[in-house]
UniProtKB/TrEMBL annotation:
It comes from Laribacter hongkongensis (strain HLHK9). SUPFAM superfamilies: Glyceraldehyde-3-phosphate dehydrogenase-like, C-terminal domain, NAD(P)-binding Rossmann-fold domains. Residues 5-106 form the Semialdehyde dehydrogenase NAD-binding domain. Its EC number is 1.2.1.11. This is Aspartate-semialdehyde dehydrogenase. GO terms for molecular function: aspartate-semialdehyde dehydrogenase activity; NAD binding; protein dimerization activity. Belongs to the aspartate-semialdehyde dehydrogenase family. Keywords: Oxidoreductase. Pfam families: Semialdhyde_dh, Semialdhyde_dhC.
Length: 299
């Protein structure tokens, strides 16, 4: 791996920048790294730790120049990543769209994988309500929330480009197009990911909501287990799996997205147990978790 020639597609997006940060923090070994984005960004720089890398136009990408490609770009760049895979490159696809590429869990699925791994009994039914930060829509999503917030405070008009509805000071219970089954694109994608993590006969209900927060993914989770477990047993099992409880002592407080920015912690709070049914709240920097998983996978 230390002699691998790496490429990053989508270097200017939120996922691409999270990947660069993870590469630097985890000291990913490499022979070289070149970063690509749209023609509009070509010639600009992005940081890899203390180094600055020059962004190249994706149109200039040549698969033969690379051994490993991180695909963190939009669907428009999928043909480029697919061509790299066909040419023999190893491709890690963070969007999960390229058939035959290596995939990692998306942010919400990454968080839920930790939870499911730690449960002391199998799941009969899982109900998830996920609160997405605007960074899930990329840098432009962050910009739109900031612009709308300022415009509303100053009683000025604003334009919508990323979100179909006002996102500032609002909740949007639809992320992506609604299909014939009543599920949105984001809900269907999460269901598919969770289907690989759950027992075959387990029931699953998912709702994804666009929240007016910049960073940090949050989840309200209800689980029906096949066997009852006490709150004490559950709390310890989930802590052993990597979750950190924030309100298990009198001085504790509930977990919020602000508590996890730029950190690897998966915070949990509000544990309630009623026989085989448990409820809890999770929050984590899902984008950071996904990026670090991709870098570890590459190594």
């Amino acid at each position: 791996m230390s002699q691998a020639r790496l490429a990053l597609l989508g270097a200017t997006g939120a996922v691409g920048r999270a990947l660069l940060q993870a590469m630097a923090e985890l000291a990913l070994p490499m022979a070289s790294l070149r970063v690509f984005a749209s023609a509009a960004s070509a010639g600009e720089g992005v940081a890899l730790g203390r180094r600055e890398l020059d962004i190249e136009d994706t149109a200039e990408f040549v698969p033969a120049d690379f051994d490993l490609v991180f695909h963190a770009a939009s669907e428009a760049v999928d043909p480029v990543a697919a061509a790299a895979l066909a040419a023999g490159c190893r491709v890690i696809d963070l969007g999960g769209r390229i058939h035959g590429a290596e995939h990692v869990h998306a942010p919400l699925a990454s968080m839920l994988a930790v939870l499911l791994r730690g449960l002391p009994a199998d799941v009969d039914h899982l109900t998830v309500t996920a609160m997405l930060p605007v960074v899930a829509a990329g840098r432009h999503g962050v910009d739109e929330l900031a612009q709308q917030t300022m415009a509303l405070f100053n009683q000025k008009s604003y334009e919508r480009e990323v979100f179909d509805r006002q996102v500032a000071f609002n909740l949007i219970p639809q992320v992506g197009k609604i299909g014939p089954d009543g599920c949105s694109d984001s809900e269907r994608a999460l269901q598919e990911s969770l289907g690989l993590l759950l027992p075959q006969q387990a029931g699953l209900s998912v709702t994804v909501v666009q929240a007016p927060v910049f960073f940090g993914h949050s989840l309200s989770v209800e689980i029906e287990l096949r066997e009852a477990a006490s709150a004490t047993v559950l709390a310890k099992a989930l802590a052993d799996a990597g979750m950190e409880w924030t309100d298990m002592n009198p001085e504790g407080m509930v977990a919020t997205p602000m508590d996890v920015l730029g950190q690897d912690r998966l915070l949990a709070s509000r544990l309630r147990v009623h026989g085989r049914r448990i409820s809890l709240w999770l929050t984590g920097d899902g984008l950071r978790m996904m990026a670090r998983e991709a870098v570890r996978h590459a190594g």
